[in-house]
Design goal:
Length: 155
C-alpha cells in the first residue's frame, strides 16, 4: 500500500484524511485491505518483528478509528496486537495505558453491553488483559505500574 509511506501518511494526517472513508474514495482502500494489513502485522509479530508490527497496527488503528461501532471485531484484533507489541517493545506505562489499554477496555465493555459477546467472552478478554499486564509487570523496568491493574479491574 503506497499510503503507508511516510510522506503520504504525514500529508493525510495533517489534512485529517487518514480515515477508511477517505482512503476508500482517494486510494480505493477498503475493509478487506485493512483485514489483510492486520494479518500481515500478525505475520510480522510471529516473526519477532515487533516494532514493524506495532507501526503497522498503529496506522491501522488510525485508519479504523471511526469504524469502531461497525467493525469492532477487527478493531479488537488490532488492539490486541498493538498491546502485545507495545509491551514487548518496552513502551512506557503511559503509552500502553493511554493509547491501547483504556481503549481496549472501553471496546470490550461496549461489545458486552451491546450483547455482541457473551459473558464468558467478556470474562475471558478481561483475563487476557490481566495476563498482558502481568507480562508488562515482569518485563518492564517501571515498577510503578499499579495503575494498569486499576484500569483493567475497574468496572
Amino acid at each position: 500500500m503506497d499510503v503507508l509511506n511516510k510522506k503520504d501518511l504525514q500529508k493525510l494526517r495533517e489534512e485529517h484524511r487518514f480515515t477508511l472513508e477517505n482512503l476508500k474514495k482517494e486510494k480505493d482502500i477498503d475493509l478487506k485491505d485493512c483485514h489483510k494489513l492486520q494479518k500481515y502485522a500478525k505475520v510480522l509479530y510471529e516473526q519477532g518483528k515487533y516494532k514493524d508490527a506495532e507501526e503497522l497496527l498503529f496506522r491501522l488503528k488510525e485508519i479504523l478509528v471511526n469504524e469502531q461501532n461497525n467493525n469492532s471485531d477487527l478493531m479488537l484484533q488490532v488492539f490486541w496486537g498493538l498491546l502485545a507489541c507495545q509491551i514487548l517493545n518496552g513502551k512506557g506505562r503511559d503509552v500502553v495505558e493511554n493509547t491501547t489499554l483504556k481503549k481496549m477496555k472501553d471496546l470490550i465493555n461496549q461489545r458486552y453491553n451491546d450483547e455482541k459477546i457473551t459473558e464468558f467472552q467478556f470474562i475471558q478478554m478481561n483475563t487476557w488483559l490481566v495476563h498482558w499486564i502481568l507480562v508488562y509487570s515482569f518485563t518492564n523496568k517501571d515498577v510503578q505500574n499499579t495503575s494498569l491493574f486499576a484500569t483493567v479491574l475497574q468496572s
